[in-house]
What does this fold into?
Amino acid sequence: MAFSLTRAAPALTLLALLGPVAAGLAGTLAPAFGLMPALGGTEASLDPFRALLGWPGLPRAATLSLFTGLAATLVSLALTVLICAGWQGTRAFAALERALSPLLSVPHAAAAFGLAFLIAPSGWIARLIALPLGWERPPDVLILQDPWGLSLIAGLVVKEMPFLLLMTLAALPALRPAQSLATAQALGYGRVTAWFKVILPRLYPQVRLPVYAVLAFSVSVVDVAMILGPGTPPPLAVQVLKWMNDPDLAMRFRAAAGALLLLALTLAALLLWRGGEIALARLSARWLVAGGRGHAERMLRGLGLGLGALSAALVLLGLVGLAAWSFAGLWRFPELLPQGWTLRSWMRHGPELLALFGQTLLIAATSSGIAMILTTACLEAEQRHGLRPGTRALWLLYLPLLVPQIAFLPGLQVAGLLTGLDGTLAAVIAVHVVFVLPYAFLSLSDPYRALDPRYAAVAHALGRGPSATFWRVRLPMLLRPWLTAAAVSAAVSVGQYLPTLLIGGGRVPTLTTEALALASGGDRRVIGVTALAQTSAAFLSFALALLIPALAWRNRRGMRHG
Amino acid sequence: MDKGLVFDHLRIAHHGAALLALDATVAPGEVLTVMGPSGSGKSTLLAAIIGTLAPGFTLSGRITLDGTEITRLPPEQRRTGILFQDELLFPHLSVGGNLGFGLPPRLRGRARREKIDAALRDIGLEGFAKRDPATLSGGQKARVALMRMLLAEPRALLLDEPFSKLDAARRGQIRALVFERARAQGLPVLLVTHDPEDAAAAGGRVITLG
Amino acid sequence: MIRRPMRNWLPLGLAATLAVTTPTLALAEADPADWDAVVAEAEGQTVYWNAWGGAENVNAFIDWIGALAQDEYGVTLEHVKLSDTAEAVSRVLAEKSAGKDDGGAIDLIWINGENFAAMKRQGLLYGPWSEALPNWQLTDPEANAALTADFTVPTEGLESPWGMAQLVFYHDTARLPEPPRSMAALADWAAQNPGRFTYPQPPDFLGSTFLKQALIELTPDTGALSQPVDEADYEAATAPLWDWLDALTPNLWRQGKAYPQNAQRMIQLMADSEIDIGFEFNPNAASNAIANFQLPDTVRSFVLEGGSLGNASFVAIPYNANAKAGAMVIANLLLSPQAQARMASPDELGFGTVLAMDELSDAEVRLFDEIPVGIATLTPEELGPTLPEPHPSWMEKLEEDWTARYGVAP
It folds into this structure.
């Protein structure tokens, strides 16, 4: 790393992120106002918005997007907080922590498919009941695709909760929760109440940005919504994608207008959430010091652990279900297991997926490597020059997470073509960096800032310059969180579908583009194979992130819980 | 020629508000004790000397060490050794690795290893080179931290309440060791503490801030 | 994301009124009339064929074509697997927006109907070229109007056909021995067996096709359907359809509060015993599903009385394709008797051939005679007549009205 560049790093990073987003947004803004010369749109007009408002499903689709997004975020956060409050520092918590990596490795769509197979009226859980009751046919009840989007919310929660938990775990050590908790408990506060009163108010500001990222993602999610969400009408993001893919190319204008509305909805959701934060802070100000020592502690602890375990179990069991499907012959309702087992699905699709493993990992390693270098350089700049990006600049860093992908990817594709970069491996890696970098920053910034600055002071006092201090003190001491951040980044890269396809022009296939194309045939056997292949690629990076520090620090007790 | 650590009209302000002012000379082998309640600027003074003042603080006047002004030097060129309340042994390095970290690079290979072994012998930890610092007792850690700093050949010694975490039996022992080494090497010592006992043991002048 | 290309197939019996009009696009390069030059230029080229990747048998067939092209012409074929044909259309559109008028990333697209109409209207296709392919001589466009008019839109040599398909229903004989064989009978059966039938949600292509099939059976005057919708009495023509749907909807799977998104979801619902009747725009769908262990071997196909909608599948070359000569070689290969016979086999794709048997040599005809019959595939006789597709404007209006009536209310 060229550390003469650390001063320039923050500016460079913002440029790498904002350039593509701005170019992409411009490419959506123009058609939303009727401008798209390639389709004969040469005059600005409001017709796309009129067409959008004329669509009868709009009020409900928009409401649905807002409701499912807010509800999924609220439940994920509540669950995360409840688990930490009740169990942090216990063995149950450690078990849940160990389940985190696999939970994070499962792609959203795969988790949604797995969940669907568990909870559908003809799914695994129903089959458990069907056998003793002698059902030959599943009950005709609306569980999946319910009009309120409850199964969609569940599908989002099981994936977002682990992410928030990971972010919380990264932020917690700096707050020295054990000391605060012990102090409050010594004053007679129950464990959960103590946690809510002395840790949460300090923790929340640290995890606010990840929460906003979850909110923006949930409002604009497409793949999970297509599998679990309602269809009459679907959430707005799904409908925008449908218009975007409509054979009638004139629909592109309406799609662009819809994408802008989706962006506005996302901002509205964020503002609503922010309003809720302020209101809650006001309301709770008195509660915090009113002296209540807590009640229903046992129930809250039980609830936290129960729901947390259920959420983890749904993802892992869903994955087991998909694994079973990948080896299944004929498997009908109400059979608990397939009538026959076969390797055929793996023989058919395994080789082609295996062939893409190398390219996928190359892209993931390079893009997450670049993202980690930029992130580390920014954080080093902060340490060395006090170049802490202002709150405003920091917001910009998370723009790729907050702006719905469908609102700027089509524009980005055109930008890629204009620069002549598109269709190359380099372009795909560059666009992955845009999506990976915010996650790298989210994951690494807390541990980085939390490292005791006196270690650096000692190193300086011992005559070591900034470079040696970084390489020989800060980086090794932060090896574990650094690798975790790299693993999160690599997993994000592995999961990119639309950016890879749009910028790669179909010439840079990855495990995920192949998996989604194969899975579009809808056969659960194929979905099982592809989901396992994707999960294993992402899991590989998490496994390395666990294994490397464990090996490197096997004789260093002080590094075991970094 | 001013040997030792000199504070020449040192003034530190925080966002324009005056925080502390100091004019003093600490001769080689002498101990200057700085006392004062929390928030009186003791840590800020240390940060100013070692060069890690946070943005927002402004400094005027000069700090010189053996006649060289160090105020404008980067931290790593000031050669001001410091011991904190916590030992801050690098948890990812072995005991020998921590000592090696302090040792200047001109010693190489066998000579380097021998120097480290000798240093360990010197503090009664012979054969501890490969040990994980996390397995040491509090007193052992304190000795390693002191030796690590001395191996870096500092020209002054700064102590930030380094004995407050040790139990009563160890405290006197380590304190004696630190002052004895500092005197033996002719280092000016600046001790920041709450503890009047530390001040008494140091035996030098006492300045109270705040 | 589980979608497949909008596969819009042209009615076979379409009147010849929509015959080929004079091609307007000039050929700048790769003139198929000089086939030897095309073949020479194609050698060494890499052709990126963007085609839906969701069906194993299609992927395998494309691989096989690729191997053949490599052996015989030195053309490398790369199958760019899509989850939706619209992705390829978007790509060409983006390239045009960026002014990338040559060296485009796509050389060949599997395309039909609405996607073709849109790309043709926007000038995104290369050509004409398809009717100058050597193997075009083996087809009989006079007898099979579907080859030159895609969804009533004249192909004008801008796309080359490679397979025929038709709307076919399937049922599990173990659960439902005697399926209803008309739309009226289907509604009656659903009333007695509520929750056992559904259709993909329009504007999914298959769902819209189901609406059109029902409209043809129920409308008082089928003649009106061949005119643009605003020239006909739309209210009168569609009133019976809406009445029928109003009666059917409460008896649908999930009372019509949810619909499967596409044909693939419907097969899954059938496998899960959620529904008893399904349908696909592929006569071989049930046999394929049985071969893939998706459905039990007690499933059989059937068609409705009075005929079913049907049309052809095409490949087209984008206006800015990089390897146009190579793409033509592939299109021509797809029309070869060898490839067509393989495609028509139920063990491969089971699509109908686009070739005319009386244009082939005896040896070539034998290739087709030797094709085995799939376990749940109907013979051409059993498949019955194909119905003329309504004017495309009907489909747009039907989709719009269906969404307003059933698609936006929970």
